[in-house]
Amino acid sequence: MVTRIPRQPVIDALRDEWATLDALASGLDDAQWSAPSILPGWTVADIVAHIAGTEWSLTGREIEATRDVAALEHVRNPIGELNEKWLDHYRARSREELMRDFREVTAQRLDALEGMTEQQWDAEGFTPAGKDSYGRFMRIRVFDCWIHEVDIRDTLGLGEPDDLLPATWARKEMSASLPFLIGKKAGAPAGTAVTVDFTGPAPRQVHVAVEERAAIVPELDGPADVTLRVGLADWARLIGGRTTADPARVTIEGDEELGRRIVANLHYMI
Fold first, then answer.
1. Do residues 45 and 160 both lie within one domain?
2. From CA 92, how far away is CA 151, in angstroms rounded?
3. Structural domain of residue 35, as residue ranges?
4. pLDDT at residue 254 above 80?
5. What is the DSSP code (8-state) at residue 253?
6. Is residue 90 domain-resident?
7. C-alpha closest to that of 142 among 106, 190, 101
8. Which carries the bigger pLDDT value, residue 270 or residue 198?
9. What is the DSSP string of 25-72?
10. Which CATH number fits the domain that encloses residue 73?
11. What is this structure's pTM?
């Protein structure tokens, strides 16, 4: 069964996030634009190029490799290799060309998404999280673009994102991994109840109950065994294994041992 995601809010979230990234990147001076980012081997410009290249790939556009990128230390899979091909492509081009392409491809993608039928949106296919609906893939795209905004801001000391709509859908995508993180990676025993209290631009308490399997539930039957209170961007840093991640910024209430075990096992993105 595929994850059914409402279409228009996710399209609107992508539109808002791409507009925010455009304004953010356009406002940087040349030193900020070319600064090494918190992501290994990437500059701030490379983060923008990565987003543009991913969207071009989704239009069906292909590029040829100019070097062997598989041996790079931070490249671990075919998606990583594709990312590096796009970075090389844009490193040979000017800032103006990259930003023009960013605007062109995001406009194309929004037109394509607006033109999709509900059947196409809900159709099962590839996503970075395994087979699921195209709508789920686009929710992942909101999250990916949003966390890269966090990366740019962290690199340059520009604070955290505050746009509500992209943050909301980024939170929904991050919440989808909670049963896996709590039930499997952290090994929470059957009968455990966990609440993650997200704070920041899109606050929400998300509850996970562990029975035969861990699952998100609308509410708990009683108090949570452990509550983790954390800012949305801090959670993203932790699951993304960012150098800016700080487990100490997660407040643990209740079962300290279980809480620490969950926090220690959050990193799953590559």
1. yes
2. 23
3. 7-169
4. yes
5. E
6. yes
7. 106
8. 198
9. HHT--HHHHTSB-SSTT-BHHHHHHHHHHHHHHHTT-----SS--TTS
10. 1.20.120.450
11. 0.94
For 42, 64, 102, 138, the CA distances from 50, given in Å and listed in that order, are 10, 15, 10, 16
Residue 1 lies in a domain: no
Task: Identify which of 1, 17, 2 has the alpha carbon closest to the alpha carbon of residue 137.
Answer: 2
* H or E element, residue 145: helix 134-156
How many structural domains compose the chain? 2
- The packing angle between helices 232-239 and 134-156, to 10°, is 100
* List of residues 6+ apart from 117 with CB closer than 8 A: none
Amino acid at 22: D
The answer on 229 and 198 residing in a single domain is yes
* Mean pLDDT in residue range 228-233: 98
Over the stretch 47-95, which tens digit does the pLDDT of each residue have? Answer: 999 999 999 999 999 887 676 666 565 656 666 677 788 999 999 999 9
Owner of token pair 């799953």: 268
User: Exposed (0-12), middle (13-18) or buried (19+): which is 95, by Cβ within 10 Å?
Assistant: middle
Residues 104, 26 within the same domain: yes
d(CA 105, CA 74) in angstroms, rounded, equals 26
